Amino acid sequence: MSRPANARVTNRPPQIVMSGSKIKNGGGERSRRLRRLTQAYLTPLSTLKPGHNENSLNRADHIYNLTQKLILRYQSATTGLFPRYSTDKDAGYVKDSIFCAWACWASSIAYKRLDDDRGRHTELKQTAVKTMRGILFCWMQQIEKLNKFKDNNSPDYALHCRFDLQTGLEIETSFQHLQMDVVALYILALVEMTAGGIQIIYTQHEVSFLQNLVFYIERTYRTPDFGLWERGSRYNTGVPELHASSLGLVKAALEAVNGFNAYGPLGTSASVIYVDIDGHNRNRTTFETILPRESNSKNTDAGLLIAIGWPAFATHDQALFDKTLNKIFRHLEGRFGIRRYLRDGYKTEIEDTTRRHSTEEETYTFRNIESQFPMFFAFITISAIYKGNTTLADRYWQKFESLMVPGDYSGLMTCPECYCIDEECMDRERASPNSQEFYAVNPIEFGHHLFSNAVYLVALLMRDRLIHPSDLDPIYRHLPASQRPKFVNRHSAFQGSMEGDPVVQIALIAESARLQGRLATYGISTQTPHEIEPVQIWPSWRMVKVFEALGKDDRLNLSGRPPRPFGPLNTSKILRVCGMTVLCYPLLFEMTDFYTNADPATLIEDVKRDIEFVAKRWKLAGRPTFCMVLRDENVVPEYFEHLLDLLVAFKTGYINGIRVRIGRIHQLLNTGCIEHVDFVNIDDVEFDRTIFEEIDATAAHLKSKSSMRPIPTEQDLITEAELSIYDDHALFQIITEHNIDHLRNLAFAISVMINRYTRYFTVAGETLESRLERVYRQACQWRLWWTVRYCAAKLQKTITSLAPGITNLLVRGKRVVIGSKNSQEITISAPLTPTEIARAIFRSADPLDPHATVFQQELIIACADIVLQKPDAFNGILAIRLVWLKEAMQLLLDYFRESSQDGFDRKRKIVDVTSLIESSCPNAVAKQLRVLPDASVYDLPPTVVRDLLRALLIKKNWHLLTPLQIRRLNGALNRVPINLYDRVWRVLERASDGIIIANQKLAKIPTFKVMTPHELTFSYKIEAMMGEIAHPEYRQLVVELLCIIATIAERNPELPFYEAIDCDGLIKQAFGTFCDEKGIEDREDFTPFYLSDDGATTRTYLIKALMDRLLKDNLPRKFSFLGDNAAADLITDNRSDDTCHVQ
């Protein structure tokens, strides 16, 4: 294998103290040593290239010898682990060991194809088995950590990623072990090898442990980790973040292991592995959303090559694959390999290796001098072979071969870990990237890198055609699911066997024969639980209880599956449980769930949404079956027409463009997706939920009468403040009477008593909590939404899907700000567990506004739904500030009331907001709002809340609003022009003393050292500064001022800003001028300035203030002054190619 003359191989000094500054002592001598070329060392390069091997046996023997010298001789005889470097005798690394096992297995396959393998096939195969079982043994010593991690995804409970090389015990020194990609890589390799004929799992205890490894990675979509490079964010400060590479490997592992038999094709049903397909779908969605980025701080990363190509093949979307790959080429490819990520200091001469973590400012010194890794050329070669792109494979294999170096003095050619640049050449390389020579890290001095050489061996085997691509990927992950061979499997597995969306089967179950007869009069055929026997209808939480036995092992002290709720994909399976056939209805039909399900209109919309979601996300063999439960309380007169429209649409075969089929359950069983639950004895399960049973005619009649009871009007209300001065006896009397005609007074009385005592205090034999729960249920039945939300807040109700909802927003670059202005606001910038989210919401609650705690949960779920359906609705919104979002909705309500009043002053330019709401919102929202003329947002049904939010975010028909209305709404929504953050970055480049926003100064240095214009961190910084502003109107003035400054700077490129750009001072100066001209004496109240009807006039005052400030600097030049006619152009940029900095 030849090398170009310009690729230098030198000896690095064994010990270099690295820092951001020049090496002061002996720097010149060390640099000379780095550059010194030993002629005797280089002589073999031109003579030791292996000759052409005539036959496959000779080529296999050559690679066997390479495997022995590069890999096998360094394996621990006791644990089977491999070190990172051949000279390391202490630590074995899981990730490196997996790839070494992969190389050994690949080499064994080459001999399996030969007639005379001389026992080498078995030797190499068993070496891989030893490694995989060694990793399994090491992790099985950490079962206590595994159990804790399933409940709390904390780095403290992460499975370790390195162990003592000889004993397999934990290494006590600190290390960033939380690497979801490593566990996923192990599962993927185990499935591939088992499918290839290797036996790795021996006992049922090991099967249970493997199942728990699946539980470990299922929530990766909300588990920030340290990633493939063990460093977390780009700044290497010990902060984890969500990584697309980790998500891609987890997605691939979950798809591979679902329905997989750990014992191989001869295993029993007891050794089958199950996957939560809703968890898989969330990982998949999050992965595809983040791509082509790697994370918030990393614009791209070489680790994505492992995720989108071999071995994971996590995406088969060719456009997304090409976009990600081209981004890696564009930003990371160098002459000597692929950089891991931008500003990576690993193995550079100026990195301080005495410290585990860096400072954020340090990363600036690594710009354009990052080490380059030839190994990734081999990864590209392997992936290109699988893709059938021989041109790309040949090109990168030639590049890879040219970078090989001798691994010892005999001339053994190896792949160096990386190429680095001499410190003396760094400034020239920064100024002109790829202009300087890099040297290889000397494998003779430091030991060769086993990971790199394992990948080299796999690529060599494939290039020499000693193994076929399907040999290394027997489960055919390199093919789309629809093109893979079909295997007979009694357990659900990812098949994707059909083109387009599948048909969703719908089973309509009526809770009583009375309801069944009522629906039959309209031609709607349903079944009762009695008619479908022996098939049973279960609530999903009952099935969750069954699955708690999955993976449980008392002898290993494994706790089994955590009590995670079943999503709509899991409930679309038909389950065989111990001889019983069971259908589970979705969470949205649960009676004990959040109050939004008590709104029939919301229930109808959720049904449509879930059916569409299941159809688009279903990837299993067989059709999904949606079990729709119909209760008497759902069929209320005012919503019955809408429900009937939905059921009739089902009969037509289409709903929202999705194909559906209504049928009798016994017919649907033949075409549905069947999941066999063989791991539990049903008699051993202690259920806390009953099955769905038919109610008799008397009970149905009573339920119907109660739902038809006239809803009392809430009159003679006593406020909570007034009740708080009542004595205990008076409150006891109100509580014990339990007058449901005054539910709000009753709720207030119970709440006051809870504040005085506790929720567990007993009144007349019943706890206060239980009594408040009864009030809550009655208010839900009557749909008294203000009281419902009040009781839900006092009971601290939470929505089950909060964590996935927030994650959907976070992975799209949004941040969620919860809390209130009068208490505290908490910014959620990383995924949290449901418990952590609920704790944050209720901890930040305003005692004077209890409704906000549950109303903000409604907004989170509604925003998550909208961002999935209309991602562009959030363009320009980086932080979703929930308290302001509520204020924006209240503003829209106020505008609606003003426009609905008879004889209001049209000269105030308040446009007919009724037209906007009617055209933007379905479900006759305007008609419902007229029924509630004085309602606050807390009085609105959940469906109306969603529709108003959609009208705000989608901005349909906003031309009907005045400039003042648009300004106030944009300020409350935190919406900015889509390219604002990019423009502020360019302004900061010319602002010598930085920018001041809300009394916070953003200095040019160190901002430019810490951040880059290609990442989200700068946008988050600007948004965090504006987040300190207390009023939406003032925030919008700041946004408009920044746009004005950016426009003037762009039109005057030679204009410098010598002093700090003080946005607060400029707005105050503009307001002062406004007051002078309008004769306003009060200079503290900005309200007249905010409420100026003519937005261009306000901008004119801002322009004047800015120009006055610039002219005071006595700059000897002329400026492009912009008057009233051009003021609007400062805010609106019509260039279609501008995109939001939030990608």
TrEMBL record:
<dbReference type="InterPro" id="IPR012341">
    <property type="entry name" value="6hp_glycosidase-like_sf"/>
</dbReference>
<keyword id="KW-0636">Prenylation</keyword>
<feature type="domain" description="Phosphorylase b kinase regulatory subunit alpha/beta C-terminal">
    <location>
        <begin position="964"/>
        <end position="1070"/>
    </location>
</feature>
<comment type="pathway">
    <text>Glycan biosynthesis; glycogen metabolism.</text>
</comment>
<protein>
    <recommendedName>
        <fullName>Phosphorylase b kinase regulatory subunit</fullName>
    </recommendedName>
</protein>
<keyword id="KW-0321">Glycogen metabolism</keyword>
<comment type="similarity">
    <text>Belongs to the phosphorylase b kinase regulatory chain family.</text>
</comment>
<dbReference type="GO" id="GO:0005977">
    <property type="term" value="P:glycogen metabolic process"/>
</dbReference>
<dbReference type="GO" id="GO:0005886">
    <property type="term" value="C:plasma membrane"/>
</dbReference>
<keyword id="KW-0449">Lipoprotein</keyword>
<feature type="region of interest" description="Disordered">
    <location>
        <begin position="1"/>
        <end position="30"/>
    </location>
</feature>
<dbReference type="InterPro" id="IPR008928">
    <property type="entry name" value="6-hairpin_glycosidase_sf"/>
</dbReference>
<dbReference type="Pfam" id="PF19292">
    <property type="entry name" value="KPBB_C"/>
</dbReference>
<dbReference type="InterPro" id="IPR045583">
    <property type="entry name" value="KPBA/B_C"/>
</dbReference>
<dbReference type="InterPro" id="IPR011613">
    <property type="entry name" value="GH15-like"/>
</dbReference>
<keyword id="KW-0472">Membrane</keyword>
<feature type="domain" description="GH15-like">
    <location>
        <begin position="60"/>
        <end position="883"/>
    </location>
</feature>
<dbReference type="Pfam" id="PF00723">
    <property type="entry name" value="Glyco_hydro_15"/>
</dbReference>
<keyword id="KW-0119">Carbohydrate metabolism</keyword>
<dbReference type="GO" id="GO:0005964">
    <property type="term" value="C:phosphorylase kinase complex"/>
</dbReference>
<keyword id="KW-0112">Calmodulin-binding</keyword>
<comment type="function">
    <text>Phosphorylase b kinase catalyzes the phosphorylation of serine in certain substrates, including troponin I.</text>
</comment>
<dbReference type="InterPro" id="IPR008734">
    <property type="entry name" value="PHK_A/B_su"/>
</dbReference>
<keyword id="KW-1003">Cell membrane</keyword>
<dbReference type="GO" id="GO:0005516">
    <property type="term" value="F:calmodulin binding"/>
</dbReference>
